[in-house]
């Protein structure tokens, strides 16, 4: 049986709605169950590239429970943030779409 939703929700208060250019960090959590924050981005800092709207929370939809609407953001990370001094092109970037409940203010 899948874990109950409240156990898999990242803890902490929701952050205020970030705007384009806001610096954010992906929460470095490892909750059980279906989550939508890539492992390699957890704990990393990026910049909001844009807001994409609100969508049903896929972490709830995965278990067939009613889904709360959650804001989704495109967040831009530099290769140096992700790979450190091993980054071949440190200033190159990668964008990822991350739900707001996985982000915290920096």
Automatic annotation (TrEMBL):
Start-end of Pro residues biased regions: 1-16
Alphabetical list of SUPFAM superfamilies matching this protein: Electron transport accessory proteins (SSF50090)
Gene3D superfamilies according to UniProt: 2.30.30.50
Domain Nitrile hydratase beta subunit: from-to ranges: 16-104
Any Pfam family: NHase_beta_C
Positions of region (Disordered): 1-21
Coiled coil residues, start to end: none
Protein name: Nitrile hydratase subunit beta
Gene source species: Roseovarius faecimaris
């Amino acid at each position: 049986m899948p874990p109950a939703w409240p156990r898999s929700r990242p803890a902490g208060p929701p952050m205020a709605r970030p705007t384009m250019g806001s610096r954010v960090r992906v929460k470095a959590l490892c909750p059980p169950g279906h989550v939508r924050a890539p492992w390699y981005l957890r704990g990393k800092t990026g910049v909001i590239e844009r807001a994409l709207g609100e969508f049903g929370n896929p972490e709830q939809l995965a278990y067939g429970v009613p889904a709360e609407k959650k804001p989704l953001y495109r967040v831009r990370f530099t290769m140096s943030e992700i790979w450190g001094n091993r980054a071949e092109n440190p200033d190159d970037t990668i964008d990822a779409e991350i739900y707001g409940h996985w982000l915290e203010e920096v």
